[in-house]
């Protein structure tokens, strides 16, 4: 299940339609698609950089709370 909505992809739909109707550039569509894939991949990797250490911090905090109780 995708978390993106149709509204998020509206620009890509319009670019694809323009390329099909020979009103737009295929290279432009390819560039936008590559940028979108790259940004989502980098966003996922960056999230992992934050979430993995955050998991350790939360586990230590929970252990500390359990010791205090």
Descriptive account of the structure:
The protein has 69 residues and is an all-alpha fold. It has one domain. Helix content is 78%, strand content 0%. α1 (10-20) packs antiparallel against α2 (26-68). The longest helix has 43 residues, at 26-68. It is rod-shaped. The model has no long low-confidence stretch (mean pLDDT 83).
Write a compact overview of the structure shown.
It contains two helices and no strands. With 69 residues, it is an all-alpha fold. It has one domain (8-68).
Low-confidence stretches: none
Q: From the alpha-carbon coordinates, what is the Rg to the nearest angstrom?
A: 21 Å
| Helix and strand run | HH
Tell me the number of helical segments per DSSP (H or I, 4 or more residues long): 2
Q: Report the strand count.
A: 0
What fraction of the residues are assigned to beta strands by DSSP? under 5%
Terminal CA distance reads 41 Å
- Structural shape: rod-shaped
Largest sheet: none
Helical fraction: over 70%
Number of domains: 1
